[in-house]
Amino acid sequence: MCSPGMVQKYLNRISGPLLDRIDIHIEVVPVNYDKLSDFGKTEHSSSVRKRVIRAREIQAKRFEGVKGIYSNAQMTSSMQRKYCQLDEQGGRLLKTAMDVRGLSARAYDRILKVAQTIADLDESEHILAEHISEAINYRNLDKEGWAG
Predict the structure, then answer these.
(1) CA-to-CA distance for 81 and 58, rounded, in angstroms?
(2) Residue-wise pLDDT tens digits, 36-61
(3) What confidence category does residue 94 fall into, taking pLDDT thresholds of 50, 70 and 90?
(4) What pTM was estimated for this model as a whole?
(5) What structural domains does the chain harbor?
(6) How many CB atoms lie within 10 A of CB 11?
(7) Which end of the chain is more exposed for a tag (fewer CB within 10 A), N or C?
């Protein structure tokens, strides 16, 4: 077990430009017994697999005529402008996150790609504010002092 200060010192060694190239970074915290022993409603892995396969089919169709592009992660900035349209609420949410967290243009691109993938998993034709919110929350290392 490291102290929060030691963890933060280690994390500070990761440069911003390197961190920007990682699409998803989340903090994994220990799970307590009550959560582990809870037999409440869960999603079976076979249904998750079906959703992932369907999302990949959606992406394959989206990029059908584009050579070398098979998934949202491979989109260029111009492709993002074409495919990743945000509604007013989603745009405001992303703008606020950019301003508050001081995110880079590369982080903006990563958030849009992840949000599009989340929308595909939901089989949503458009990126909704909830998809943007979830994608932003997958950028934990962009938060100041996230490790304590």
Answers:
(1) 18
(2) 777 777 888 999 999 999 999 999 99
(3) very high
(4) 0.81
(5) 45-148 (1.10.8)
(6) 14
(7) N
